[in-house]
Design a protein that fits this description.
By secondary structure, the protein is an alpha/beta fold. The chain folds into two domains: about 1-125 and about 300-335, Medium-chain alcohol dehydrogenases, catalytic domain (Quinone Oxidoreductase, Chain A, domain 1), CATH 3.90.180.10; about 125-270, NAD(P)-binding Rossmann-like Domain (Rossmann fold, 3-Layer(aba) Sandwich), CATH 3.40.50. The chain has helices spanning about 40-50, 115-120, 125-135, 165-175, 190-195, 210-220, 235-245, 280-295, 315-320; strands spanning about 1-10, 15-20, 30-40, 65-70, 85, 100-105, 110, 155-160, 180-185, 200-205, 225-230, 250-255, 265-270, 305, 330-335. The strands form three sheets. Strands 3, 4, 5, 6, 7, 14 and 15 form a seven-stranded mixed beta sheet that branches. It is globular.
Length: about 350
């Protein structure tokens, strides 16, 4: 049996649709027929800059939703046909840009009845990244067990880049944790949507420069900000976040090279994957809780934009992302539509 796969042919090379075998699940794994997969900036950056991937041709894609096709030895709680969503990984057999993929069953969730495949595939990486950064022991450690009784009522938090995929989920995580004031920095056109997710204040980036942002954030918070999330990860966002924090404050950043400034404020860099050994236990806990959080409305998926032409449409999607033509939405493809 063969399937259609989108290969990155070589380092910094082109994407090409080709045939490849459908793999059988090993012990502890399930095989999934991929119905939808989301595009992420990391995907086109791997093509452009050549990192993470060790072997070519490579299959990318880390946001996946589909139907369980086959159950591996020792797997319980799943059956053929179950609708599931999960985070893929940077090895071909577990990547999302193909018609069938494999995944360890302990970091898979069943899709709640209130969302569709496309919405489900917008969640895994976008949610996992701030969840690890904000909640886990490898980040701010605010609630590693997803205990619903934990509350930071009366406290403020700051999210830089609220309209990014990770920023949207960071806002919702701070809301879940009970923060009373959640300030974010984003385009004004996203204000109503970000407030619906839990932001109490949206600072318009067209009105307040990054250089003046920290003072604006502190004025709104009206209390020491001890926790912040940087969903952009450039030098300006890092500086603005750190400047907004109180003495001894903590920042989780998507910038893998972010470092402490030596001023007593702590920076945690995020490797946003449940597959990483250091995150695996937290990842298991996350996937036990996430489906219910989506079902009850605690976590709302990203808005989605659906792309045509199956796997062949991914390259056009990357061009839109590189051209800054995507804002506040997740691009989604449907691999089974590949001709």
């Amino acid at each position: 049996m063969s399937q259609k796969v989108l290969f990155l042919e070589r380092s910094k090379g082109p994407f090409v649709v080709a045939n490849a075998p459908i793999l059988k699940p090993g012990p502890g794994q399930v095989s999934v027929k991929v119905i939808s997969a989301a595009l992420n900036p990391v995907d086109w950056k791997i093509q452009a800059y050549d990192f993470f991937v060790q072997n070519y041709p490579a299959v990318l894609g880390t946001d996946v939703a589909g139907d369980v096709e086959e159950i591996g030895e020792g797997v319980e709680g799943f059956a053929k046909g179950d609708k599931v969503f999960f985070q893929g990984y940077f090895v071909n057999e577990m990547a999302g840009f193909q018609q069938y993929t494999l995944i360890p069953a302990d970091i898979v969730g069943k899709i709640p009845s209130n969302i569709d495949y496309a919405q489900a595939s917008s969640i895994p990486l976008g949610f996992t990244t701030p969840a690890i950064g904000i909640m886990s022991e490898n980040g701010l450690a605010l609630n590693p067990s997803f205990d619903s009784n934990v509350s930071f009522s009366g406290k403020p938090a700051f999210v830089f880049g609220g309209s990014t995929s990770v920023g949207q989920y960071a806002i919702q995580i701070f809301k879940f944790l009970g923060f009373s004031t959640i300030v974010t920095y984003a385009s004004a056109r996203h204000t109503d949507f970000l407030k619906s997710l839990g932001a109490t204040h949206v600072i318009n980036r067209a009105e307040v420069s990054v250089d003046n942002l920290a003072e604006a954030v502190k004025k709104i918070a009206n209390a020491p900000i001890e926790n912040a999330f940087d969903g952009v990860g450039d030098d300006a966002s890092l500086a603005a976040c750190l400047d907004s924090l109180a003495e001894g404050g903590k920042l989780a950043s998507v910038n893998p090279e972010a470092k402490d400034r030596g001023d007593g404020k702590k920076v945690f860099t995020i490797f946003g994957s449940s597959h990483a050994p250091q995150n695996r236990n937290f990842g298991r806990t996350l996937w036990k809780h996430l489906p219910k959080m989506v079902q009850d409305g605690t976590i709302v998926p990203n808005r989605v934009e659906k792309l045509p032409n199956g796997l062949a449409g991914i390259d056009d999607g990357f061009k839109k992302m590189k051209g800054n033509q995507v804002s506040g939405a997740k691009l989604i493809v449907f691999p089974q539509e590949t001709v």
